[in-house]
Amino acid sequence: QTVVTQEPSFSVSPGGTVTLTCGLSSGSVSTTYSPGWFQQTPGQAPRTLIYSTNTRSSGVPDRFSGSILGNKAALTITGAQADDESDYYCVLYMGSGISVFGGGTKLTVL
Amino acid sequence: QVQLVQSGSELKKPGASVKVSCKASGYTFTSFGVNWVRQAPGQGLEWMGWINTKTGIPTYAQGFTGRFDFSLDTTVSTAHLQISSLKPEDTAVYYCARKVGGIWGLDYWGQGTLVTVSS
Question: B45 to chain A: nearest residue by CA?
Fold first, then answer.
């Protein structure tokens, strides 16, 4: 079974830029997988940041952007702020109506 | 504005059943599918499947067949998740999330429903 991979943790300095990635245990991620990205803080429901590779969800600031980098999907956060400290999850569409989440990345801003 | 409002927390004994509801408002319910996502305590998000609100046809992820059932009541714009023969490992927060129209993706989320299974 294909596993969706994410960095377990990452850190960024306030004001800095960070790129989180979302890959496959076997194969490359392309726009066909319609990557999505979500932000979750403890005790809260996830919030959609990006869907369909690079479409920002309603109300999401343009500091958050999605792309394909090499063989992975990527979420880039520019001008990192303290309240960006969260867990970030990606999801990939595997076809036949099936999606799979990655294990999540814990982002620390310090 | 688009809202998905879920039913309240549930405490159930092993072997019982539970039904979680997700009431939609602010849009045409049958124009957007509903996904279900599980999050066990301290764990990541797990995609359970989705239901096409136009046809009523559900799709289940591997590991969520048999005891899990997605259904709809379109008259009140509500999707339901029923879990039967509950096990302690079903203890989790269950989220509904709207499928983006026309393409594959999730946009709006419910607030989550905590289901606790304990004797």
Answer: A101
